[in-house]
Amino acid sequence: MGVLGSFYEAFLIVFISISELYQLQSNTNKMAQFQEVMRQQLESSMHTELEKLLSTAKGAKAEVSKKDFEGFRNLFHRFLQVKGPSVEWAKINRPPEDSIQPFDKIKAKGLPDNIADSLNKLVVVKLNGGLGTSMGCKGPKSLISVRNENTFLDLTVQQIEHLNKTYNADVPLVLMNSFNTDEDTKKILQKYTHHGVKIHTFNQSRYPRINKESLLPVAKDMAMTGENADVWYPPGHGDIYASFYNSGLLEQLIAEGKEYIFVSNIDNLGATVDLYILNHLVSQPNGKRCEFIMEVTDKTRADVKGGTLIQYDGKLRLLEIAQVPKAHVDEFKSVTKFKIFNTNNLWISLSAIKRLQEQNAMDMEIIVNPKTINGGLNVIQLETAVGAAIKCFDNALGINVPRSRFLPVKTTSDLLLVMSNLYSLEAGSLTMSERREFPTTPHVKLGSSFTKVQEYLTRFESIPDMLELDHLTVSGDVTFGKQVSLKGTVIIIANHGDRIDIPAGSMLENKIVSGNLRILDH
């Protein structure tokens, strides 16, 4: 009986375990069914709200908004499907050696005599959707003066005009505007009529911000002013593929014989057309045509948050910090494991964009960007990044370029560098001065008194000589007289209530200046 009893007991345990397993499976299935019903309900509610919004649109704008909302519905559908992190950390590998080529190797090939033929296949696209608000300016960021009264847009037009004149080529400029920048940009474009550069524009989509709790649009109608001023957003630069295609401009440029676009942020002053990279693109044999090149550069401590290239599921892929599981963020920021980052200078095949758009095969990870609007309402906006599509293109390649091709102006600290004698300006292009003895740019950190461009400009009677500067930190109420020279490491700190006026003609080398120093006119 003892043996039978033990057997019966064991049988009961197994039976109960199987029952629990079935119960668990049943609960899991019920949960999955519940989640699916919820998803369908949310999509149905979103569809209803979008239709209501569209019914308030008028004229030609109604058709544009309809196309925009098709893209938004697709993005929202994918957002509801996503479960957990978009990458499995264990599956991440370093890219194969030949998938990221050093720029010197590309340059060593030299240039053919007919490089003008290659230029005639190229279109320059600048991402021009951003406002200058972070630097205290109204209107498009591209209209901020950065050097000798030249704006970002002036410099871009000068660069392409010089290229077209030098090689007797016809490289057009395309600006991807947003609803925030389009009107102001178009007014300014009239001044470039006689500059020898064809300029086209198209608009990014306009998507509705979503209430974080209800996951429904905050907008009540299609208006963009008054209560609706904060309820729309341009959905990140990954939107370039769909909006470029929908605008009809992609098709038009292909018909004109254009084959590649060079895409970059308009505030990256290092992103000029590189003839060696262009030649590499167009000289590939037909079967191995490279459809996408991402310019990367070596990571420094200042770039730890920048996206990097990895090998994943046999494809080259962009990994952004937002996709990294929390437990691995420090590893992602490491300069030893991930040595390069994306400059967002990209060379992309026009025919490949057309193919992927028509096959609905453009797959980019969704970035969920939380915001607070209308005095405290929590919303989210769904965005994508242009470089994330690299995995969709055939024979994609990274090129490790010199740091000089990454010169973004995001703050007045960056602005001080590009306005200084560290750089010389020729035909719209900034190059590091030959009188600078080392190739790295100084680390500049200006305090909150310098954040807004107008205030920043009043604090410098003239831009200091920075040829021998390594590091500059300025905090508090500080002004600079004319012809100041800064060398080595300079730290200037005016405590609250104090003010420091650096006298005209001063030379500060490896100095810490603090306290109170007033220079008064008499």
Automatic annotation (TrEMBL):
One annotated GO molecular function: UTP:glucose-1-phosphate uridylyltransferase activity
Sites where the protein binds UTP: 141, 204, 236, 267, 410
Keyword terms: Nucleotidyltransferase, Transferase
UniProt-listed CDD domains: UGPase_euk (cd00897)
Sequence intervals crossing the membrane: none
Listed pathway(s): Glycan biosynthesis; glycogen biosynthesis
UniProt-listed Enzyme Commission number(s): 2.7.7.9
Binding site for substrate: 237
InterPro entries: Nucleotide-diphossugar_trans, UDPGP_fam, UDPGP_trans
SUPFAM superfamilies linked to this entry: Nucleotide-diphospho-sugar transferases
Gene3D superfamilies per record: Hexapeptide repeat proteins, Spore Coat Polysaccharide Biosynthesis Protein SpsA, Chain A
Biological process according to GO: glycogen biosynthetic process; UDP-alpha-D-glucose metabolic process
Function: UTP--glucose-1-phosphate uridylyltransferase catalyzing the conversion of glucose-1-phosphate into UDP-glucose, a crucial precursor for the production of glycogen.
Record note on quaternary structure: Homooctamer.
Protein name: UTP--glucose-1-phosphate uridylyltransferase
